[in-house]
Amino acid sequence: MAYWDFVASRLASNPYIVGFDPLNEPYAANNIRDPTLDIPGVMDRKHLTPTFSKVFKTWQKHDPSSIMWFESAGDIKTIGGEGVVFPIGYQTPPGGEIGQPNFVVNAHTYCC
Fold first, then answer.
1. Which tens digits make up the pLDDT trace of 25-81?
2. Could you tell me which of 72, 83, 71 has the C-alpha nearest to residue 40?
3. Are 61 and 5 a contacting pair, CB within 8 Å?
4. How would you label 18-45 residue by residue, b for 16+ Cβ within 10 Å and e otherwise?
5. Strand pairing partners for 78?
6. Does residue 55 contact residue 1 with C-beta atoms inside 8 Å?
């Protein structure tokens, strides 16, 4: 978290920064070692939620009104020639509650 503490200490008070995204298009880690990571939502719950929660708390120390964009390791599968987008695995925003104004789900879907 030292990286995010440093970045937030430098950027959180900048009026031109509207939010932060801890990890762009996260990949499902080592899905060879842990095949459960290929199940939609497992990577989000198992690895991204705890990591993003720590990042959010670290950033909030420097700016309690900050907004975190967070993404899913969701995968897009082609089934029968059609693209299918699977649901994300987050039950609540990482480090927050549903309805809290500090979160945006940043979905990247390049199919269909």
1. 888 778 889 999 888 889 999 999 999 999 999 999 999 999 999 999 876 555 566
2. 72
3. yes
4. eebebeeebebeebeeeeebeebbbbbe
5. 83
6. yes
